[in-house]
Amino acid sequence: MNWISNYVRPKINSLFSRREVPENLWTKCPECGTMLFHRELSDNLNVCSSCDHHMPISPRARFQALFDGGTFVEVPVPAPIADPLQFRDQKKYPDRLKAAQRDTGEPEAMLVAEGEIGRTPIVAACQDARFMIGSMGMFVGNAFLAGCERAVEQKRPFVVFTAAGGARMQEGILSLMQMPRTTIGVQMLREAGLPYIVVMTDPTTGGVSASYAMLGDINMAEPNALICFAGPRVIEQTIREKLPEGFQRAEYLLDHGMLDRVTPRGRMREELITITRMLLGMPPAVVGDLPAPEGGGDLPQEAGPDTPASEPQG
């Protein structure tokens, strides 16, 4: 046995060798630069614990935090034509879609689901800012309308989380046509007397902000979210003037009457429960584990003030 080769050399190599650490264990906050452990960041819903910066969060992660028990059912969305214009810039449009699908694990930029929040059935849709900046194409238009139709069919409120860089240029005029289509969907909800609540996240811009994002019965936003049609840099270059501090951010829009609430992500679920039940004329949600509401997809019938708690709800 060679003592130097079999013992000393491996010992020295272990002391000086560089241990490989997975790159996805830590995330650097883009706002303050703090290194955040991935589990702590995930538990905090992708909000920096140091500066409260709200980072992008996937629709599935958002829905798991939103719905009771993290349980929801996806609403099917009709698939549009894959590449209607045969568009190509530096890459073919189908190649860009495949790359975004590979990176996000989602088929497109919007996910629609139904479930309960605080035992209140709702339909919700969420855009994914990681999927081509959440841009609005034909699929997003189809998904939004599918959510509206499902909400009308089941008589449920419709809650939408927006995140988009605007219309998807690879689909040209077909993308722009989603603006009136989604507006028609909002009108369907109003005619049915159902609440339509919009939560704008960073960023909500372009054709999305010019259509369904600003048409909510209640318009909410996450802190410091960029909400605009044209970005501040474009406006500054056009008018050649310095814009006010925080211009087009959520707090600025709240101060100027464009928003009803700015709510941190950690309190969003409770806020939405309170608002939806208020708009539906229902009593406040009871804290604790309540029995599942009866009546299938219809809204649960709440007990009156004189109804004993032990009586079954109709």
CATH fold annotation of the largest domain: 2-enoyl-CoA Hydratase, Chain A, domain 1
Question: What percentage of residues falls in helices of 4 or more residues?
Answer: 25-40%
Backbone structural class: alpha/beta
In total, the number of strands is: 9
Summarize the structure.
This protein has helices spanning 3-16, 38-43, 59-66, 93-104, 138-154, 172-176, 178-191, 206-209, 232-239, 250-255, 268-279; strands at 26-28, 35-37, 72-74, 110-117, 120-127, 158-164, 196-204, 218-221, 261-262. It is α/β, with parallel strands linked by helices and 314 residues long.
What does this structure look like?
The protein has 314 residues and is α/β, with parallel strands linked by helices. The protein has two domains: 23-55, no CATH class; 56-279, 2-enoyl-CoA Hydratase, Chain A, domain 1 (Alpha-Beta Complex), CATH 3.90.226.10. It has eleven helices and nine strands. The chain has a seven-stranded mixed beta sheet with strand order 3-4-5-6-7-8-9, sandwiched between helices. β4 (110-117) and β5 (120-127) form a beta hairpin. The protein starts with a helix and ends in a 35-residue tail after the last helix.
